[in-house]
Each structure stands twice: as structure tokens, then as C-alpha cells.
Automatic annotation (TrEMBL):
This is Hydroxyacylglutathione hydrolase. Keywords: Hydrolase, Metal-binding, Zinc. The lineage of its organism: Bacteria, Pseudomonadati, Pseudomonadota, Gammaproteobacteria, Pasteurellales. Gene3D superfamilies: Ribonuclease Z/Hydroxyacylglutathione hydrolase-like. SUPFAM superfamilies: Metallo-hydrolase/oxidoreductase (SSF56281). SMART domains: Lactamase_B. One of its GO terms (molecular function) is hydroxyacylglutathione hydrolase activity. The keyword Metal-binding applies. The gene is gloB. It comes from Lonepinella koalarum.
Length: 233
């Protein structure tokens, strides 16, 4: 199962499970959507994974602990103060038959991580569909390197990002990409999905390479130019 549960204004809480295994939850902007989902669907939770220490990704941690006291909470160093079961900044770990690869994707925040599991990439606020996160407590070099790391994953990787920013990102992509055909085609699909209240993700890395300016930036200066232009867009 792969499910994006809308939370707050435009966040997603991602749920993933393989076969009949229990569910992995990625990021927790608030507790209510999770409580109502698990009341209606009495699955077990394997773990809560956190991508980075921004309030709209971790605000539900304390209440999550209260409701699911036995579920491990795993995240990067910058989230350690939340009382994590395990701090992970890179490398692989195993959890209930899941093999999870932690990819360092700093830039948006210094210790931001992404989780790659069974060809699904949970990339928080590093990579978005047709865009990328703003550079806050990390720096441009770090963000550029993070994007290169994600770009090196297999083309069929499913991109599961932390926000529904796709239409705004496509509007920007249309102004900067030379070949706009893939962007224009994808925009029609996303407009239709959004009208039905459906998420625009997951997408594939292969599609993102055609519609995402930040994956097409050839070097750091071009990446910085795209990022700064997008900040003002
Ligand atoms: Zn963030």
C-alpha cells in the first residue's frame, strides 16, 4: 500500500507497506489524520520515519508517542531532541523485513534525510514533483549534491515528497525549461487529479528528469540561479 494522507495546508503524511507487512509512516505534521486513518483501518505501524526538523513535519511526534508508545521513531540528528528511538543520517538499516536506505539530503535543512525503500523515495522537502525545497539552514552546494544523489537512483523510483506544490512548480518549470512539452503534458494530468482532490504523486524519477528544472541543472551556478528565481516566482 502507498498512500498520501493530506495534512495541514499542503503537507502529506505518507504511508507505505509491502505485502501484508505493517505500515511505515513518513513525517507527522499533525496527529488527527493518522488517528482517523488507523481507527478506520486497524493496521499495525512498523515505524515513524522523520525527514527533517520542521514543524510541519514533526509537530505530531509527541501525540504520536502518546497514542503509539511502542512504535519506533527514526530520524536524523536534527530531530534527536524529539526523543528518537534511533538517529540515522546515512546508510542502511533493517526493520520488520524492510530494508531502508537513508540518503543524506541536506540543503533545505542541514541534516535532512530521504528514505529509499522498495524503490519508493520519501524525500520530504528535498525534491518535490517538478521542483525542490528552499534552501534554509543548509546551503546551495549541499542541496545541489543532495539532488545529484537522488538523480542517481533508478529511473523507476517512485517520488513521494512532503508537499503538494506540483502545479506551482510546473508553472515555474514552464518558464525555464527549453523543452516544455513534458511539462505541458503533465500539467493536464495534474490539473485533472487536483480537481478530483487526488495527490499529484507518486511520480517517477524518469518523469521528474523531464519536468524538474532542478534535476536538469548542469552545475551549481545554474542550480542556484533556478533556486533563486523560483524563490521570487
Ligand atoms: Zn521543511
Amino acid at each position: 500500500m502507498l498512500k498520501a494522507i493530506p495534512a495541514r495546508h499542503d503537507n502529506y503524511i505518507w504511508l507505505y507497506s509491502r505485502d501484508n507487512l505493517s505500515i511505515i509512516v513518513i513525517d507527522i505534521p499533525e496527529i488527527e489524520p493518522i488517528l482517523s486513518f488507523f481507527e478506520q483501518n486497524p493496521y499495525k505501524i512498523t515505524a515513524l520515519l522523520l525527514t527533517h526538523n520542521h514543524n510541519d513535519h514533526v509537530a505530531g511526534v509527541a501525540e504520536f508517542k502518546h497514542h503509539f508508545p511502542d512504535v519506533p521513531i527514526i530520524g536524523p540528528t536534527e530531530c534527536a531532541y524529539l526523543g528518537l528511538t534511533q538517529v540515522v543520517d546515512r546508510g542502511k538499516f533493517e526493520l520488520n523485513d524492510y530494508r531502508i536506505e537513508v540518503i543524506p539530503t541536506g540543503g533545505h535543512t542541514t541534516n535532512h534525510v530521504s528514505f529509499w525503500v522498495d524503490s519508493h523515495l520519501f524525500c520530504g522537502d528535498c525534491l518535490f514533483s517538478a521542483g525542490c525545497g528552499r534552501v534554509f539552514t543548509g546551503d546551495y552546494q549541499q542541496m545541489f549534491e543532495s539532488i545529484q544523489r537522488l538523480k542517481a537512483l533508478p529511473d523507476d523510483t517512485l517520488i513521494c515528497a512532503g508537499h503538494e506544490y506540483t502545479l506551482a512548480n510546473l508553472a515555474f518549470a514552464e518558464t525555464v525549461l527549453e523543452d516544455k512539452s513534458a511539462v505541458q503534458k503533465h500539467k493536464v494530468l495534474v490539473e485533472s487529479l487536483r480537481k478530483q482532490g487526488l495527490p499529484s504523486m507518486p511520480t517517477t524519477l524518469s518523469l521528474e528528469k523531464d519536468i524538474n528544472p532542478f534535476l536538469q541543472a548542469e552545475d551549481l551556478p545554474q542550480f542556484i540561479k533556478f533556486r533563486q528565481d523560483k524563490d521570487k516566482f
